[in-house]
Each structure stands twice: as structure tokens, then as C-alpha cells.
């Protein structure tokens, strides 16, 4: 098997796991989103530390941490990244467990378009006409949903915005996936631990309430880390243009799960909104592939 095929398998499995992640959070929908987030952060750090030790990269990890925090810009960048990805995680958990899986799907469809908009605003990147049309279609789609459903899809926009900001911050501090997740969770883990400890000390925590809930909460670290590690292995082996296509696998699975498994309403308004955004994404992906071919 060629390296590219291996890379496709890694990346596909990563996006499949991300797409099916709503099923995991639904197992503990009785636990508040902020408590699940605290456990996700804490157990992700524990798992990543164990993994780094297992692959004998601890000395490199320590050196990376020391290097990062000797520079104020990188220290602020990685700290902000840890906070922003935590906000993204809690919004996603809340959306799934509050029967807004469609909003989560919509958010991750919009995300690539938000990212190119951030590129214009913060990185002074230039847009092509096709990219402008793609962003305009997404804006029209969200506006159409807001007017016709009478409510703003804030969860979808929050997911897209936080993940877009996270991507922007990662450009400031470039880290490999393994060290990046470990350091980001390490920054916010003390807060997560204090929150968990305070809940458990008052008897209001979910940890230990049942063996099943405890297992799922601890497993949140593995559920977070495994797809990221698979993605990192895949991204090293396949072209960026192929990653661009595969990234829509996860929100498509979320959409199907929300509609067919959890019976969330998919109205004509939803259909029009999603179609407008899908057309925008097709245009964006076409433009991206064309650019990569010209420069490659």
C-alpha cells in the first residue's frame, strides 16, 4: 500500500470519528456541558502525556514547552488557542446534547468560509471573485434561516467562529498535532481540575455517579485525541487539496445523524440554507484545488 493510500485511510478514519462524535456525547447528555468540557480537557491532557511518554518524546515535549514560554507572543498565542478551542468544544457538546446537531453540522460547513474571511481581515490575503461569491452565499443562507425560522443560528456561528479563530492562532504558534493538543489542554487543565474537584466535593459531580458515566467521561480524552492523531498522520501523507474534500465528511455525517437518528426537523428553510452553503463550498473547493495545481 502506498503512502498516499495510507494517508487517505488515516484522514478518512479521523473525519469518520469526528462525524460520529455526537453519538458519544449523547451517551452522557444528562451531564451539563461545562462539566463534560472540564473532563474532556483534563482526561485529554492525561492521555496525551501518557502517549508522549509511550512514544519516547517527553524530552522533546519539555523542550518545546520551555521554548514556547520564553516568548511572550507565542505564550499568549498558545494560551488563547487553548481557551478558544475549549469554547468550541463546550459549544459543540451543548449543541449535540440540546438537540442541535444540525446547527453543529452547519457550523462546520461554514467554517472554511469563515477562515478565508479571517484571512482577508487579519492576514491581508486577497480574495478571488469566486471566494467572494462563496462567502456571500453563506451569508445569504444564514440570513435566510434567521429571517424564516425567527432565530439566529448562534451555535453554528459560534462553532465556525471559534474554530476559525483557533486556526488563525495556530498560524501564530506552529506546533505539531501531538504537542499542540497537550500544551493547549495543559494551559486550561488547572481550571478544569478545580471545577471538577469543586463539583465532586459538594456531591454534585457526575464522576462516580455510575460506572458507565465515569467510563464515558474518562474516555472523553481518548475520543478527543485519537481523531487528531489519525488526522496528523494522514495530513503528512496526502495533498492539502484532498484534505479539503475529506473535511466535509464529518459535518455530512452529523447532518445525517441529526435528521435520521435524532429526528431533528429538516425543513424547507434548512434545505435552502444548506444548499446555498454547499454551493459556496463547491466554489471554494474548486478555487482551492485550481490554485494548488497551479502552484504545485
Automatic annotation (TrEMBL):
Membrane as UniProt keyword: yes
UniProt subcellular location = Cell membrane
Residues crossing the lipid bilayer are 7-25, 37-55, 75-94, 106-123, 130-146, 152-169, 176-197, 209-230, 242-262, 268-286
User: Which keywords label this protein?
Assistant: Cell membrane, Membrane, Transmembrane, Transmembrane helix, Transport
User: Which membrane topology term applies here?
Assistant: Multi-pass membrane protein
Q: Which InterPro entries match?
A: EamA_dom, EmrE-like, RarD
Residues forming the EamA domain are 6-145, 155-285
Q: Which Pfam families match?
A: EamA (PF00892)
Member of which family?
Answer: Belongs to the EamA transporter family.
Q: Under which name does UniProt file this protein? A: Chloramphenicol-sensitive protein RarD
Amino acid at each position: 500500500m502506498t503512502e498516499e493510500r495510507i494517508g487517505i485511510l488515516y484522514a478518512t478514519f479521523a473525519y469518520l470519528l469526528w462525524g460520529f462524535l455526537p453519538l458519544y456525547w449523547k451517551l452522557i447528555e444528562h451531564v451539563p456541558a461545562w462539566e463534560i468540557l472540564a473532563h474532556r480537557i483534563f482526561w485529554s491532557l492525561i492521555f496525551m502525556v501518557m502517549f508522549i511518554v509511550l512514544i519516547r518524546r517527553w524530552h522533546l515535549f519539555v523542550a518545546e514547552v520551555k521554548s514556547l514560554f520564553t516568548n511572550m507572543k507565542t505564550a499568549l498565542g498558545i494560551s488563547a488557542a487553548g481557551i478558544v478551542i475549549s469554547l468550541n468544544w463546550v459549544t459543540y457538546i451543548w449543541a449535540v446534547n440540546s438537540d442541535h446537531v444540525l446547527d453543529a453540522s452547519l457550523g462546520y460547513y461554514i467554517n472554511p468560509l469563515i477562515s478565508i474571511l479571517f484571512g482577508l481581515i487579519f492576514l491581508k490575503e486577497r480574495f478571488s471573485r469566486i471566494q467572494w461569491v462563496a462567502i456571500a452565499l453563506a451569508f445569504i443562507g444564514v440570513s435566510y434561516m434567521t429571517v424564516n425560522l425567527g432565530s439566529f443560528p448562534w451555535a453554528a456561528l459560534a462553532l465556525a467562529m471559534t474554530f476559525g479563530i483557533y486556526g488563525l492562532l495556530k498560524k501564530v504558534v506552529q506546533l505539531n498535532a501531538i504537542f499542540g493538543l497537550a500544551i493547549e489542554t495543559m494551559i486550561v487543565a488547572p481550571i478544569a481540575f478545580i471545577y471538577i474537584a469543586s463539583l465532586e466535593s459538594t456531591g454534585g459531580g457526575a464522576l462516580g455517579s455510575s460506572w458507565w458515566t465515569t467510563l464515558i467521561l474518562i474516555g472523553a480524552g481518548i475520543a478527543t485525541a485519537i481523531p487528531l492523531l489519525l488526522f496528523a498522520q494522514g495530513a503528512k501523507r496526502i495533498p492539502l487539496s484532498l484534505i479539503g474534500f475529506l473535511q466535509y465528511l464529518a459535518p455530512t455525517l452529523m447532518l445525517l445523524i441529526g435528521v435520521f437518528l435524532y429526528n431533528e426537523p429538516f425543513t424547507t428553510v434548512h434545505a435552502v440554507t444548506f444548499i446555498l452553503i454547499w454551493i459556496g463550498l463547491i466554489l471554494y473547493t474548486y478555487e482551492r484545488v485550481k490554485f494548488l495545481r497551479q502552484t504545485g
